[in-house]
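Predict the assembly for these two chains.
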Amino acid sequence: MTATPTILGSGLDEVTRSEASLRQFLHGLPGVDQVGAEARAAGLGTRSIKTTAKAYALDLAIRMVDLTTLEGADTPGKVRALASKAMRPDPADPDCPSVAAVCVYPDMVATVRETLGGSGVHIAAVATAFPSGRAALDIKLADTADAVEAGADEIDMVIDRGAFLSGRYQQVYDEIVAVKAACARADGPSAHLKVIFETGELQTYDNVRRVSWLAMMAGADFIKTSTGKVQPAATLPVTMIMLEAVRDFREQTGRMIGVKPAGGIRTSKDAIKYLVMVNEVAGPDWLDPDWFRFGASTLLNDLLMQRTKMTTGRYSGPDYFTLD
Amino acid sequence: MSDRIDVRKTYKLYIGGAFPRSESAYSYEVRDSRGAFVANAALASRKDARDAVVAARKAFGSWSARTAYNRAQILYRIAEVLEDRRPQFVQAVVQSEGLSSSKAEKVVDAAVDRLVWYAGWADKITQVLGSANPVAGPFFNLSTPEPTGVVAVLAPQESSLLGLISVVAPVIVTGNTVVVVSSYDRPLPAVNLAEVLATSDVPGGVVNLLTGSAATVAPWLAAHMDVNAIDLTGVVGDAALATELEVAAADNLKRVRRAPAVEPDWSADPGLEPMTTFLEIKTVWHPIGV
């Protein structure tokens, strides 16, 4: 099930030179064995992780959470509460690590910045006409620049699924390159770019593999499964295919890309399944918040409840954690 | 012609309206009062208890929000379906408790009657316990009973049907949801009751039935922070366990219905106490308009 495509001679530059070579490369990627991929993902999900390994996995998963609120009804108050929670997920336990980032709409970035201060928790903003991506390119770029200017460290962009599905790969590629350029900041390091594929709309696993390579070649720092607004969102097989892609990409180019499943991961059990898969498919290098994230909101409370269960020895309940 | 081979049944748990096997995959042999094999029952583990509490919590919101009238109808419906299955329950009581058929019939009758009796209380308990309180100010001051939440019930070990109904019905009729650990030696009436509940309009998760050992499962329920109350009726005669459970229950200030010294006479009039123990009185002040 390895996907090791041959990149001709001078490497990726050759591939991305024209629409035709891009198409030739992407369609030359080996197809995904659907039944095999699903069986492998299900098999990895049966591992039993207990005691100290579980405690480690829970803390790691908490550190990997991109605590997300992407509702039309978001208010500054709600976003501030979420940011406070991101810094200290369990106020009753000072040993509880903080999450990786808070993920909000661009207009909320300034509010989050204010609350987080220098806590080390990153700020991710969804840009480029999230979640549909249906806007003109200059609007998407303005959206991105706006979020970066407001203080976002990480930009979650959506690809144009319509263009991808109709085979206009060059357009998708150019758009990612342009957004990547818009992530640059005059007075510091440029914001990390996460590229959302919305795998629930891509129909096939082959497409997931193709779009993963396309985004990585275009300069994505992270590849992300879904917006969370479309069902199905993140699934184990889809994430596995993306993990294979980042593994193979590093083998080919030496550049490491992160992966972020988002949407539908609600329980600690699910999160641990993903971590097992990261370790087995991509390798232990990816078991780090810099290279693997969970886009989630309800997951955090379940992780905290499990963590409390591990430390106190009794089951906890949702009454003891914030509603958000 | 050879004899027909027995169907050796292995019963399952009842959690969230479904009949799952125990997460532990263990089961145990159930024997009748004379020691003959009757069936296998699932041996619930702490994880089954955990799942049951999650199911009960999920069901609590909508069950407590139903009208008292509707809950009465549903309890009455349980009584109806139980009545329809009389022969099955009579047999289960005979096997479990070693009673004669005629005595077992009386027990089943009493269980049906008890359900009907509690069904009648659904929309009357508020009038009895609630009050309009006189206060020195321009306010209406009203007290009403509200359900406590998720209640863990350790069912009686001896009275496997009437006792079980007598501890479950008063808890759910007022809007609580329940996780029941049945009698260890006599689980069959409880298992049959689960089948009745599944077909009598009781929403999934309102009653969750675990068969197995209270000594194994109860400490987890007593310590569980998302369980609001616990009924220790089933730990008659084990003072050490009862104390341990009460101590564990104190951590989140659970309401505790204490273990009796001997198992009560279930045929006696139960009074209101089984219901009132699992109710909280809420008092509201409301300004009197002009």
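The longest strand of chain A covers residues 122-127. Strands of chain A lie at 65-68, 101-104, 122-127, 154-158, 192-196, 222-224, 258-260, 294-296.
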